[in-house]
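Feature request, filed as a ticket because there's no other form

It would be nice if the structure record came with a short human-readable summary line next to the tokens. Right now we just get the raw output. Example of a typical job, pasted below so the devs can see what we mean:
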Amino acid sequence: MLFGQLFFLALKQTSVNIPIHVCCMLGGILVRLFLDKSHRVNDSLLEAIDTVGDFSLALFVSMSIVTMKLWQLADLGPQLMVLLIAQVILILIFIYFLTFRLLGKNYDAAVMAVGHLGFGLGAVPVSMTTMKTVCDKYRYSRLAFFVVPVIGGFISNLSNAIIITTFLDIATKMGAGM
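Raw output as currently delivered:
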């Protein structure tokens, strides 16, 4: 997190507006790449990271479920069901005909497709949970657990941060001109 915070402070000096969590994710990716290249990663470290990750994911999911106010959406039930059914059908078609096939039609492609399904129907924690469930039943996929979090978590957060802050800056400038 230190590397991410230093990167965030450096970007702030150049007036680039990126949220700190995106910079911390970049710092974590750089530290992991350094550790992998220097061969300083051992099994006990990976098990510890996996345990902390499992706990954090379970805590996040349970807190999200507990804080949902579903009664506020009761009037929108039929419309939400139509959207949900359409989303499930479209993401399944997209994953089967594009994601799985373009990624090579092998086990890694299947696990990444499952991660894409979780991301398409929810968010990165959902994709991680679905991939972990598949890997617990069959076998672990190093490639999938590297690609999906980086693409789904880091790159989408980075692009969303850039797009949102750019439009907010434009809206602020338009508001200042009025």
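Something like this underneath would help us a lot:
The helical segments are 2-13, 20-37, 43-67, 77-102, 107-121, 124-137, 142-177.
The longest helix spans residues 142-177.
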